Amino acid sequence: MKKEFASIVYQIWPRSFKDTNQDGIGDLGGVIEKLDYLKTLNIDYIWLSPIYVSGNYDYGYDIDDYYDIQPEYGTMEQFDTLISEAKKRDIGIIMDMVANHTSTSHEWFLKALESPDSPYRDYYFFRKGKNGKEPNNWISLFGGSGWTKISDDEYVMTMWAPQQADLNWENPNVRQGITEIMKFWLRRGVAGFRFDVINIISKKEGLPDKNPHKKGYQFADDYINSLPKAFDYLQEVVDEVRKEFDFFSVGEGMLLTQDAALRYSRINDPLLDMMFHFELALIDCGPLGKYDFRKLYRWTIKDFKSIVRKWQTDMQDRDYWMANYLSNHDQPRHVSHYGDDKKYRVESAKAWAMFNFTLRGTPFMYQGEEIGMTDCKLEINEWKDIEAITDYKVLQTMMKLPAFIAKKVIQKKTRDNARTPVQWSGATYAGFSSVSPWIKLNPNFTEINVESQANDPDSILNFYRKLTSFVKDHPVLTFGRWTEILSDHPHIIAYIREDEHEKLRIIINLSDKPVTFSLEEPEGTDILTTGKEGAPYNSKMVFAPYEGRISEIKRNES
Length: 558
Ligand code: NOJ
Hints:
alpha/beta, Oligo-1,6-glucosidase, domain 2, Immunoglobulin-like, five-stranded antiparallel sheet, 17 helices, globular, binds 1-deoxynojirimycin
């Protein structure tokens, strides 16, 4: 097993992490300033969401220049300082590699526009329109058409925002270009990459019209999702880079299937070390995607458990390694999404953390979750997320939703929920900045902030510190077998983690009600608990709302 598998990764979305030059925007100085704080969470890597030069239509995921730092975030010199300061603390920096598309202000795109014979035209998908319409009926993953008009009868493929043009990976120069970008950053000392939507880099040959009945995300499967060439192209690029560098790699697997996952992240011969799947993130959405509200965003713990079971039980004997996460910059805050962000906020933040950190795989956490940050209600004029803004219109025009319902749907799912500034203290602007931040600050910062939790032994923050240190001391939690117990229980998720050295039993009440359950195992010794010392182990145990506990069943001292 690669040693990197036994890591804890912390994701930073820099714009909202910490501002040090007082312009209301987070920056590299802020990341450097907080390295000691981050180390108290026992992390091994920081995944930095994009910090390259960007027009900010999709806040960094529309890259103008992969070889320089966005001036708002700092300078290359500061970046080098970040690398070396992080190294001193045994923290590696993981860059976001956005290789499916560049921005339409990127040099390649601008050169492509210069002339119809430009060799750069084949870096992208430029196509003539058909009968006065787009070249095909594909749709953007942000809603609306998957094409952007660039002249009277010509379009370019933009599967995200109109300012993000899809790269044509068929072209060897594109693959070479990405290889060089990766080598550039590895030479500067980065530890690896998180590959943005890497499973959609190959598009169905001939770009045929999609089946008109395949709407929303459904269409991705047949036309862009993990097509055979995606594996070949990615293999070529990583093989080339691996000739010179060893690096950490995690891929974003939008709508990843298990079959595809097994081709990306084989333990013994990984294309990428690990992948993120989306099944938990989309548990409460309809098949058309995040804004498909027809399930009314309802889900049950049983649904949740069956997804977990599928990825944990089925995959462990199949040479597969995976990345686990509950939150990131694209999803609502998990304490609001899956837990209770009001009455049991503290308990549920701890219970969900217990879950995420005790699964087989590599755990990822997202800035602010360690203090239990919650979703924030933003009014329309406060929205920054391009996906939300586009989909607000799509919900009204294509789905015929009244504006007030469309607004509610967006408020529930907008990525802005995860992007409000990190709440460092109860001071003005939450200690994030001394000026008004670029995006609304969650008004609950006076109550929920790092400063107030730092010295409280029962805080969520200190629970994360204990839990992460516990995970580091118990490799069984990373690598051990995962065996579910109490599988039919409607409120509790419970499992045993076991290797040749020890066996731990994890039991978590994911509901807001006290629950009872029975276990046949003999009494165990509690070694870590989120709640009050619970009832002694007997055949009818009682669990408080959102209580998680790890019990030691047996330890082999040899
Ligand atoms: C996935 C990223 O996580 C998201 O933030 C971005 O908007 C899209 N990919 C497009 O790059």
